[in-house]
Amino acid sequence: MRLLDLCRTMEFQLPSALLFNEVKYITNLEDLQNIENALKGKANIVFSYVRAIGIPEHRAVMEAAFVYGTTYQFVLTTEIALLESIGSEDVENARLYFFHCKLVLDLTQQCRSTLMEQPLTTLNIHLFIKIMKAPLLTEVADDPQQVSTVHLQLGLPLVFIVSQQATYEADRRTAEWVAWRLLGKAGVLLLLRDSLEVNIPQHANVVFKRAEKGVPMEFLVLHDVDLIISHVENNIHVEEIQEDEDDDVEGPDIDTQDDEVAETVYRDRKRKLPLELTVELTEETFNATVMASDNIVLFYVDWQAVSMAFLQSYIDVAIKLKGTSTMLLTRINCADWPDVCTKQNVTEFPFVKMYKKGKNPVSYTGMLGTEDLLKFIQLNRISYPVNITSIQEAEEYLSGELYKDLISYSSMSVLGLFSPNMTTAKEDFSEAGNYLKGYVITGIYSEEDVSLLSNKYAATLPALLLARHTEGKIESIPLASTHAQDVVQIITDALLETFPEITVENLPSYFRLQKPLLILFSDGSINPQYKNAILTLVKQKYLDSFTPCWLNLKNTPVGRGILQAYFDPLPPLPLLVLVNLHSGGQVFAFPSDQAIIEENLVLWLKKLEVGLENPITILPAQEWKPPLPAYDFLSMMDAATSQHDTEKVPKCMKETDVQENDKEQYEDKSAVRKEPIETLRIKHWNRSNWFKEAEKSFKCDKEL
């Protein structure tokens, strides 16, 4: 089990989707025609229909847009009626069309379209686009047996229309006609008989060359274009039937997908959400609503899986707050009202902002789940940091009595102690408290009698008092530096438990500490004796270089797969393992025949320190790469940037100007961006909690 696999189950760092900002979603024929008109003479269009957002075909289109989105305009729909309106007879399956708009200079002329007949997979789309980039028609004067084009390299046959000088113009028109009819099915070339050194039978006017090596060419007499098309299609049909007989592979099950979010959304598509618990906003109602009362606004797009998954969590929050909160929960569909979202500086979806009268909006940066959003809303009922004005009020604050209704959402309260003249330090702490609002309760005390509190809790001013309500403890931390960023770091580190239970939700917070993980794997609750032994070593500073934690396989089943990757066979539990992810990748196991007590643990750690213990395995430091080169989109983009045209063409070839050259790039999208269907960026499934530095350090490049 790779650490990457565990990360994929988290609501934290790794994206579940690629970039979406090059794709336009449309719902009717008028939208499609507007985009066509805007791009005529400028760029081509890749138009696709999928049954639902988030299914494999949809992700394949998005991955292709990630690579080719700067060259072609990608357009997407899920509307069957739109597919029918462009003349498609098959509305049961996903479809993809290539619209040749760059060739059209007359705005009254329609763009030609070519249908991709293969299933919508990433590889098939990639190959199809490469074929669309190839010259429509090529003139050759070489031996057909020696001619090779991109079509042949991609497994498509070649059709040579044999021409001679006397009939050149008519033959070329015929060849172009055939090329359009066979686009995506075969490559078409105009073979100049008069320039050939190799003899072609005088009666033959068509040469058919298969992609398979060793298969002889066919010299044919076909005087009708339809006969040429039929011959090619019949041979392709035979090959497809043979492949189907060899590969008895079922099509993708739309109810079982490789993306858990998309799969959940699709399975729950018929679930009726009580949307009436939230207020739907529009361009006309947005400003008036957010200015009239305190609001939580969800910015989302209704065609994207992550948005729809989070919408369910958002409604769950509305259910929990029903009748108990003065905060109005609202939502706006940015697919319908993109201008509103742009004005609110929202370019990622889903996104949540809190609006309060007279204050700047507050962006929610926590995990996209019900409990975390509920905590954010409840803790924002008061302003931070709270200004404490008396010793009695400070004691009530530290005991949890002052805000006892919020203690369930924040297990720790932080009180900053400052002398009245520490102006800069107080300002920095206030900035830190404001930054952390919605995540932890913070207060400030700077009255003349602050020394009474500092003496009672042995704190040297300026200082922080951390009241841990679940443990009933209050500890003091001196502030050597009062910079807001340093204060935030101290508080967030203090929120971490000494010996936590690791889950998929909290692992990133501990992983960013960049220390080896000392993990006690248990099939249920751990023995209090083991916990006390490890906590004792923590107090004695033996474990300062490690992150001690435990993992309950019943609560986090993915841990069993991790152990199976370390051990063969799996030893009995509980099992203590040291995993050095950040340096070396070694995995050490505490001897299973020894009791987990303080003396044995200290001896084992000393052996590790001097190198007397051998690792049970060493995790490879290899980078995570796509399973196939065809899916290495970043490499494709790099290659495209450095060299746009890498195709080899035969000598004496002349490309027709009917198809654009590979080197040409579409740069001017200003006309498209003025259309009402705005370009949208989709938010990654998870955002880092508080620190960009934590996000940078969280690199899942080793196995756990």
UniProtKB/TrEMBL annotation:
Give the residue range of the signal peptide. Answer: none
One Pfam family this sequence matches: Thioredoxin
Domain named TXNDC16 second thioredoxin-like: residues: 17-135
The record, for SUPFAM superfamilies, names: Thioredoxin-like
The residue ranges of the Thioredoxin domain are 279-378
What InterPro entries does the record point to?
Thioredoxin-like_sf, Thioredoxin_domain, TXNDC16, TXNDC16_2nd, TXNDC16_3rd
Q: Which domain of life is it from?
A: Eukaryota
Residue ranges constituting the TXNDC16 third thioredoxin-like domain according to the UniProt record: 136-226
Q: State what protein this is by name.
A: Thioredoxin domain-containing protein 16 isoform X5
Q: What is the source species?
A: Sapajus apella (Brown-capped capuchin)
Q: Which gene encodes it?
A: TXNDC16
